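[Q] Does anyone have a clean C-alpha cell version of this?
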Amino acid sequence: MQELLFALGLILLLLGLLTGMAIPVLKNPRMGLAAHMVGMTNGPFLIVVGLLWPHVDLSHTWQVVTIVLLAYSSFANWLAMQLGSLWGAGRKFAPSAAGDHRASATKERIVDGLLATLAPLIIAATVLLLIGVLR
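[A] Here you go.
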C-alpha cells in the first residue's frame, strides 16, 4: 500500500508539472494554474501519507477504502481543474479561477460533479487516517 501511495503521489506531481508547462496555451490559464497547484500539493500529500502509512492501524478493507478515497479525491481535484482550464468551466465551485469563462452545461456539470464529490471524500479519508494513527 505504501508503494502505491508513493507511485500515485509521483504521478500526480508529474501531472502538476506538465500542467504548469501548458498554462500559456490553455483556454483559461488561471484555472490551469489551479490545476498545476493541485498537482504540486496533492502529489506530495499522497507521498506524505505513504510515509505515514506504517503507523496507520486499519483493517485491510479500511486501508483499501482509505486509499481509494485519497486517490479519487486527489486525482478528481486535478482533473476538474484541468478540464476547467481546457473548457473554460467551473463557475459554480471555482468562480474566482473560472472568471468570465463559460462552458456548455454538460461540461460545467462534469467539472461541478468532480468538485462536489471530492471534498467530502477527502475529509472522510483524512478521518480514517486519523483513526488509524490514533489506534
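[Q] Thanks! Anything notable?
[A] The two ends are 19 Å apart (CA to CA).
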